[in-house]
Specification:
By secondary structure, this protein is an alpha+beta fold. The protein is built from seven helices and 14 strands. The strands form three sheets. A ten-stranded mixed β-sheet has the order 1-2-5-3-4-13-8-14-6-7. The protein has a two-stranded parallel sheet with strand order 9-10.
Length: about 290
């Protein structure tokens, strides 16, 4: 056996000998099918969120939102993450396997393995009604980067270096009538917000001419200005965006995230999104 999946009342546990990729092959196809089916059996009620953890002896960085949600396929955790979700990187196990755990927990449950530490920066934006279609019903990393940069980033620190570990808390007050889900919004939202708190390092040739690939309203001049400044940022400098076929690919360091907490915020004005970045510390007792 190279994988296993078990499900109980409000939880799913799984393991595999290799990490679940976006496009699995061989027995990993069956593993994804079994794990996704088990996760579809989890449903959160008001006052509950999904808490998912990933652990592996392979301690290389990995996008938590990919390995725990996106790679499972559309809708696998939609019902479980209806009101919010918390993703954590757990300590490495000693059996050499990759472990996945999903639980529906009370919304007030603390993170299991990490605690918020030194603040790095924050973003607060209010999506105007005219921008709802692009950001919520057709979300991309580029559109969320643009919205966050236009709204402005509050920097607690500025650096050229990328932190070794990150924690990110996000609250989302969806626009009225939105029929989407946090699970579906998670990847482009996370990628775009993290990208907005980086500074771009690298050539601009061939990038600014593709401003319309980010958003039809973005001009090459504004795109270049946003990429050029600031030269230092809360999450440091990276080669943030590159040409990808006829479009662009965003390369934020979201693989440094070890704790990602995204919740609905129904008490906020519709379209309000907040993001707080910090350096995580080990939770008490860990």
């Amino acid at each position: 056996m190279d994988h296993g999946v078990s499900a109980g009342d409000g939880h799913v546990e799984a393991w595999s000998t290799t990490r679940l990729p976006f496009e699995p092959t061989g027995s990993q196809v069956g593993f994804r099918r079994e794990l996704a089916a088990a996760c579809r059996g989890l449903t959160a009620r008001p006052g509950q969120v999904l808490h998912a953890c990933y652990a592996a002896a392979d301690t290389r960085v990995v996008d938590l939102e990919n390995v725990l949600t996106y790679n499972l396929g559309p809708g696998a955790v939609r019902a479980a993450a209806r009101y919010g979700l918390v993703l954590e990187r757990a300590p490495a196990p000693d059996d050499g396997r990759h472990h996945y755990r999903y639980r529906v927990v009370d919304a007030g449950t603390r993170w299991s393995y990490w605690a918020a530490g030194e603040p790095l920066g924050s973003v607060r934006l209010l999506v105007p009604s005219a921008g709802v279609r692009g950001l919520f019903t057709g979300p991309t990393a580029g559109r969320w980067w643009l919205a966050a940069r236009r709204a402005g980033v509050t920097a607690a620190v500025r650096s050229a270096a990328v932190p070794g570990r990150l924690a990110l808390r996000v609250t989302v007050a969806p626009p009225e009538g939105w029929r989407g889900s946090l699970a579906g919004l998670l990847k482009p939202l996370t990628d775009g917000l993290v990208a907005a708190v980086h500074a771009h390092e690298g050539p601009f040739d061939g990038l600014v001419e593709r401003a319309s690939a980010v958003d039809p309203d973005l001009t090459p001049g504004e795109f270049e200005a946003l990429l050029q400044e600031p030269r230092e940022a809360p999450l440091g400098r990276v080669r943030l965006v590159v040409r990808w076929g006829a479009t662009l690919q965003w390369l934020p360091a979201d693989d440094r995230i070890v704790a990602l907490d995204v919740r609905l915020a129904p008490g906020h004005a519709p379209g309000t999104v907040t993001a707080e970045f910090c350096v995580p510390t080990a939770a008490s007792g860990r």
